[in-house]
Design goal:
Layout (H helix, E strand, L loop, with lengths): L5 E8 L37 H6 L17 H7 L6 E4 L3 E5 L4 E2 L5 H12 L11 E2 L1 H23 L3 H4 L25 E6 L2 H12 L6 E6 L4 E7 L8 H19 L9 H15 L4 E4 L15 H9 L6 H5 L9 H17 L1 H11 L14 H13 L3 H15 L1
Parallel strand pairs: 3-6, 6-8
Antiparallel strand pairs: 1-7, 1-9, 2-3, 4-5, 7-8
Helix pairs in contact: 4-7, 7-8, 8-11, 9-11, 11-12, 12-13
Length: 411
Amino acid sequence: MTRSPKMMRLFATGLGTLIALAAVAGAQKPLDRSKPLTDPANDPYTRGGKQKYIEAAGYVSMGGFEFGAAPDTTKEVAALLEGIDIRWIETPHFELGIALPKVKVTKEERKKVKAELTKLQAALPVIKPDTKILDPWLRAHLYAQRLEEHYSRVQEILGVTDETFAANKEIWDIGTPYFGIGPYMGQMGKFEVLLLPSEKASTRFLTARLGLTTKLSQRWNIRDRDALCFIAHAGQGQLNVDEGMHGHAVFNVTQMMMNGYKHYSYDKPIWIREGAAHWFERNLNPRFNTFDSSEGSAAQMFKKSDWKGPTLKLVKSSDAPSFASMVKMRTFAELERPHHLATWSIFDYLVQVHPEFLRTYLATISGIKNEQHIDDATTLPDVQRNLFRDELGMSYAQFDREWKAWVEATY
């Protein structure tokens, strides 16, 4: 799918319960009846969109930015999805449209959500960390905080900061280190996320703006603005549970950040993207797991929250996929249950045992250019093989043995 404008569709699965009872006291009442509920003037947490609180939360804006297919802005998207209440928030690295309904905090989620709300309360003092209901405005603020924190975690794994990309220009100066063409991991546009309440709303947006008929979540490359966009709705799998949607968003943003690192000019290897996405999602809550699939194929899903036991059993059997075979995978349709376990576990192994190699690997496979200084992934198989040989001193077969031995000692 090199240089294709689209990115693969996916499924999500998880466990949980359905939604809400009543809003936080006063949170659903309009502060300014002359304006829509989604207008910042009706946001109780920034006290009607006061600049003091917008800045305290670290936001760039609360609407009025470009979003989705060019030349659309939040205004056009809101008009297309008339009747859907979208809260818009622009953070340092994301442009977000959050249209999720109010939801009850489950008993399992309370400790995590309370910690998140306590942190958010420092910027937005009206927030009550012990609240049992997340209303639409509060969910929007939570996702802004969550995705910015996730962005930082991915950067930490990669060993980069915003400064790494600060000097990027649209036209690369030959002879200087290549880190893409923009400030957002190498992209010119911020990462975009649209979380919708229903399949109907998602289908309307995907069909009208991207020409897609899928009912599932979608990642897409908005080439005209050099931005990667993720669209999901709460009507699939168990995404009506806040914890499930949180993990699903993290899974997909991870995929976009991996592909966008040093600019999205070609797809990074399937194994590293899927493994990293599983690892970050499962670190939030192993009960909820997302599985990618290719167009026209069903994802290989399984419901177990424990992956260590099955992975241990896998490496002791003759069914474990070889690393050499996973490196060659070209589409998500090739991913089966053993591949999901193996890619997740291998990423876990690299993070814990070879973190510096992981950084070197991801940096080297990203932004490859040919002799004409054009982005070109045709040498990727050789680049990967040489990295394992030169940086780890291992062939793929030796790496298999080392990883399996680690699994047996650790899992």
